[in-house]
Amino acid sequence: MNASVSEVGLADCYAARRRIAGRAVRTPLTRSAALSARFNAEILLKWETCQPTGAFKLRGATNMIAALLEKRGRDALSAGVVTASTGNHGRAVAHAAATLGIPAVVCLSRLVPEHKAAAIAALGAEVVRVGDSQDAAFEEVTRRVEERGMTLIPPFDDPLVVAGQGTIGLELMEDVPDLDRVIVGLSGGGLLGGIGAAVKAIRPATRITGVSLSRGAAMAESLAAGHPVAVEEVESLGDSLGGGIGLDNRCTFALVRRVMDDHYAVSEPAIAAAMVDLLEHEKQLVEGAAAVGLAALVEHGLEVRGQKIALILSGNAVSLETLDRARAMAGR
Ligand SMILES: *Cc1c(COP(=O)(O)O)cnc(C)c1O
User: Which positions fall inside the Tryptophan synthase beta chain-like PALP domain (predicted)?
Assistant: First the structure.
């Protein structure tokens, strides 16, 4: 194995757990009676929707900011942290920074809807509106890092962010030491890579299955190509799984290649049906990106009989309009 500086190991995940304790939730894992009966398996649901921001990304952002505070001290972070994410990562950075008493700026293009900006501001971050594209927002982030000494908190491609997400893997192994398989959404690879790093170190036989969108799946296409490639971004019910992995990816590409056992792509109708299933049977609303594990079980007929399977319900950032779209697509 290539022992690069960007590798994430079990010790990193345990350090992350110590740092995020009391700042992110140790989420419940519950057995779904309906899904267990349907698949003749133990189907276990990991509720990352219980995080105060509604998604697991709080773990990674909290770990990174807390680790930098430990290593560099509060003065080094006095200019604050910055990111350009409109979604779950932006909310995570805002919340984590507020919890740790660090200023946070989230740069958003003027095209981002006002309710998203307001939600991030409500978590305690300063929202800076700039330009009319995501690229313009990123340029503003770079400017603030270079000119104002702010610290970038990336959404996935950093060992501290990945180790934070890896605390999910530690919790799974504690709750179900003989877990057969984890099925998890895959985009930039921080979530799958972190879980895989922890789980494979504790129980190598546990299978790690990644699930991405059938179009614009940057990590899957990069793995197939053997190097990071750019993909076109497409509209999806699983919009939190969109976006590239970075052509200069330094951490998650190699990690996902090492820890992922198999991979599936799921269609929009399958995601829609899985969202409605979870609402109907578990009485919980999850976003499309969180429903892809169930979607893969159904759409690809994965052989899971008699096994203990964990599905990572990664987030709940879904509007009523999007739920309506999913219900119309699922016909229920
Ligand atoms: C970010 C995100 C993912 C994917 O995580 P990566 O680390 O980018 O692979 C999955 N689900 C939700 C809800 C997310 O916000």
Answer: 26-315
Torsions phi, psi for 284 (to 5 deg) = -130, 140
How many Å apart are CA 87 and CA 314, to the nearest integer?
13
Q: Which atom of ligand 1 is nearest to the CA of 289?
A: 11
Task: Tell me the two tokens of residue 234.
Answer: 């497409």
Q: Are 131 and 143 in contact (CB under 8 A)?
A: no
Residue boundaries of the structural domains of the chain: 5-56+158-330, 58-152
- In CATH terms, the fold of domain 5-56+158-330 is Rossmann fold (3.40.50)
DSSP state of 315: B
Q: Annotated catalytic, 85?
A: no
Asked, colleague to colleague, whether 5-56+158-330 and 58-152 share their fold, the answer is yes
Pocket mutation for ligand 1, best pick of 191, 252, 294 (most atoms within 8 Å of C-beta):
191
The H or E element that residue 106 is part of is strand 104-108
| pLDDT surpasses 70 at 1 | no
- From the candidates 57, 116, 200, 308, which is the catalytic residue? 57
Neighbours of 142 (CB within 10 A): 14
CA 258 from chain centre, in angstroms, equals: 18
Which of 8, 48, 53, 57 has most ligand 1 atoms within 8 Å of CB, for mutation? 57
Quote the pTM value. 0.96
Task: Reply yes or no on whether 267 is catalytic.
Answer: no
The string of pLDDT tens digits covering residues 68-78 is: 999 999 999 99
Centre of ligand 1 to C-alpha 97, Å, is: 20
The CATH class of the 58-152 domain is alpha beta
* Phi, psi for 287 (deg, rounded to 5): -80, 165
How many angstroms from the chain centroid is the CA of residue 235?
Answer: 18
Q: Is the CB of 287 under 6 A from ligand 1?
A: yes
pLDDT digits (tens, 9 = 90+) for 3-33: 444 689 999 999 999 999 999 999 999 999 9
Mutate to test the pocket of ligand 1, among 27, 49, 88, 237 (most ligand atoms within 8 A of CB): 88
Nearest ligand 1 atom to the CA of 88 is: 15
